[in-house]
Amino acid sequence: MTRRADFARVYREGRSWANSLLVLRALHNGLPCNRYGLVVSKSVGGAVVRNLLKRRLRESLRVMSLRQGWDVVCIARSGSASANYPRLKQALDELLGRARFLERRL
Fold this sequence. Notes:
With 106 residues, the chain is of the alpha+beta class. The chain has helices at 4-13, 47-63, 85-98; strands at residues 15-18, 22-28, 35-39, 70-76. Strand 3 (35-39), helix 2 (47-63) and strand 4 (70-76) form a beta-alpha-beta unit.
């Protein structure tokens, strides 16, 4: 997602789930694909830290098998700056599981 209006709609109408590292907001979009938005504010860290977090979150989402048709906004909390990739992926996996976005595996 890139448009401000898309983010605003997810914030206004979507559901949210949170843990100590991340906040996940989601809204059904009616499309055959998912759209993702990553939010890492300046309070988390400098540009290098923020870009590293976004790359880690993007990769975590890429390797997961998720249900289609959702707008998902992933917001990094300040504690996520010190988390390594496996811990960040585990936190995201936990939130996606609670939101029931993970595809069922047979």
